[in-house]
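ASSEMBLY PREDICTION REQUEST
Request ID: AP-0331
Submitted by: J.K., bench scientist
Number of chains: two
Total residues: 649
Priority: normal
Notes: Please return the full assembly, not individual chains.
Input sequences:
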Amino acid sequence: MNRGVIAAIFRKDLVAFSRDRFYVFITILGLVAFVAMYWLLPSNVDETIRLGVYQSGLEDVLAPVTSANTAALEVTSFGAPEELTAAVSEGTGGIIAGISFPPDFADSVVAGDGVVELLVPADVPPEYLPLMEGLASQVAYFAAGERPPVDVATRTVVLGVDRVGDQVSLQEQMRPLLAFFVLLMETFALASLVSTEVQLRTVTAVLVTPARPRDFLAAKALLGTFLALIEVVLLMALIRGFVGDVPVLVVALVLGSVLVTGVGLLAGASGRDFMGVMFLSLALMIPLMIPAFGALFPGTAATWVKILPTYGLVEAIVGVTTRGESWAELGPVLVGLGLWCVALLALGTGILRRRVETL
Amino acid sequence: MADTGPAIDVKGISYSYGETLAVDKVSFAVAPGEIFGLLGPNGAGKSTTVKMLTGQLRPSHGSIRVLGMDTAEDLAAIQARIGVCFEEKNLYTAMSGVENLRFFASLFGIKDLDTDGLLERVDLASRGSDRVAGYSKGMRQRLMMARALINQPDVLFLDEPTDGLDPVSARTIQGLIRQEAERGAAVVLTTHDMYEADTLSDRVAFINQGAILALDAPETLKLRHGQRSVRIRARRGADEIEELVIPLEEVDAADAVQRAVTELDLLTIHTEEATLEDVFVAYAGRGLNA
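STATUS: Completed
Returned structure:
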């Protein structure tokens, strides 16, 4: 390879990129929008469950429960069932559900026919119901003057990092997705640059000089990686993403930049015009976005998601920034990401080479 | 890698696009300092031939030596010494004329390119710092020509260099072509403008359906295949006009012309000679635009 030629093509492309108002506009807009979006998202998670209670005549019984408010459970008393219903419906004070004990609850529960109303808005997750039923049962025992039939001693063993009081915020959950969006924009830009070069046949003029196709391809791959990396690093810096094991994160971002460069070359070489390139870029990127969206939701990723090229990138970003993982835990996914990089870059450059040589 | 002998030596090259044979066993040679016209209609195989000569395509059969080197083995060394002016205006429009020239100079490893001098040669000195996007077609073509001259090439390939240009731009480019040939560069001129080929070329090759039909100096071809004549229009009586065509190949042509001049009431008198177009028709059985 001729380093002078590669440097010349790289510099030329950088000039072309900086002078294209569309690329510059979407790049700046994207960065500003993503950074703004990040900082506007909640930076912490409210783990407290707020319940409302109507409890006529049960003040003494409920006193131990209502006075024992913790970070996890907060119980608020209401003076009338209508007030409780209104508060639950409107979510006043963050109340997500209500328990309405009938006025004769103490008598009826002794008689064995007490009915407690659980007020649950339609959008409350079903897992809250057992919690409320348990609370109602406990109150019932107290109202009846009896102890629960058994006292079960429990011991909590947290596997992995105990995140009680330190849940992953929406900001943190969005980090890989934002990083991925920035990389996606660079895919469009690179694909468009490559496509323009092919369509205007400027590449033909380059390749009748001492510049070889491999020099041209290397320059494009370097440019794509450079642009993507600069932007994603800038984004991560602006959203305070460089936490934990930074070298692992940097390696993941470099590999991610190479990965999207491969996709950009593929789309740029295959698209016939600007719209075609945009369509192809998006079509290729949609499946690659899935792991990033998957990071927004709790739980383990499905097996088919794990084989997607971008899974390693997302897993590495999430692992380093939210789980505090390092080489030992993330080594295998980085290797997988690296293999995908090689494959996509080879495919992208291969198709571009074929396109260039058949012009 | 000696430079003795022809600047370009093509022996029996062929190329097919799939099942379509684009170039069929073409052979020719071009000497240093010679302007060689490659003429033919669209789709005749001219561009494919030039693509093989410049290393963009590899012939399926035959061999090409440029400046004594084989294109299959020494392409990079050859491309360092050739200049190519494409039919497509494939310039970087977001860059200025000077930036375009400097970029291509850097591909040749030239660091001290005299951009002012080069732009002066193509009458673009005053617009060199303007972006190419604002150039007219003629200006772009002249910049393409300047680009082809960056490395002072020993072989210059020009594909339709004056196509669609105004007369001033066309003359500028034709002047440059002559200067380059005088400097010693071999020039391969691909065109379907027969007049331009006739006035510029030392030799021309007619190519049609991938094969060379004829190859010689334009004058020789015209003499060999065309007919020179004198066309006379004269008044006969009050309203009638008589037209005479006297072929100059006839034995008594001179006497016939003399008689016409002295005896007839002449309106116009023109000499007519065969054009390259006539010669092409004679060979191909059709015109360039048919």
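REVIEWER COMMENTS: Residues 3-42+168-357 of chain A form one domain.
SIGN-OFF: pending second reviewer
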